[in-house]
Design a protein that fits this description.
It is found in: Mitochondrion; Nucleus. InterPro entries: Ribosomal_mL64 (IPR018472), Ribosomal_mL64_sf (IPR043035). The protein is an all-alpha fold. The chain has 3 domains: about 100 residues, no CATH class; about 70 residues; about 35 residues. About 65% of the residues lie in helices and about 0% in strands. It is built from 7 helices and no strands. It starts with a helix and ends with a helix.
Length: about 220
Amino acid sequence: MNHLSVSISQVRYLATANDPLPLPINNDELETSTEIDRNVSRLPEDVYRHFKGVPPTEIKEQYHTRTKLRALWGKYGRKTGIDPKLCWPTQSEMDEIIDDERVYNMELSEKIKIVKERREAKQKEADQIQAKVEKNLKNMPKMIDDFRKRTVERERAKKAEVRVKSDLAEQARDFYGFAVDPDDERMQFMLLQLEEAQKSEDKKARKAAKKLEAH
């Protein structure tokens, strides 16, 4: 590990994530300029002080995170009355820094290995896509032929359905003496009647055939 990593490891336990946030020093002792005291703009005090580049008179609850307290310290410095030790990384932040250094300070051979593995994985994915495209291209003529056959069959079935409906409409007109909608219940009634009539005709035909055989 390099010099920076050693230094971080030596001091990593100086700050921990479980430490309570340091409370700000009493701001009553901070000097307030005459110009701030003469706030004739009627702006809220925090807004006016921010406009004048002066820290808030008190560190309110919304600032009670390390990030925001550090930002206040970085902007206003000691005038905020914030304990500067909170600017040091916490235990979890130190761990992240050390992990980052471990990655960036790895051996060149390890970095080359990682790059090579990523490149091979990317090439493998590209090869799989190319193989799939080539396979689909080979099957394209058959797929087109199958599509055309299905289209012809659908058209044929559609025409047959139209013919059946047309024949039923003609039968309904002959049966009732007027046109009947295919979805009308009377169409179903007619079909039942025709079916019964057909069964009766078939029965008569069988009886006639038996009589002929008997003679």
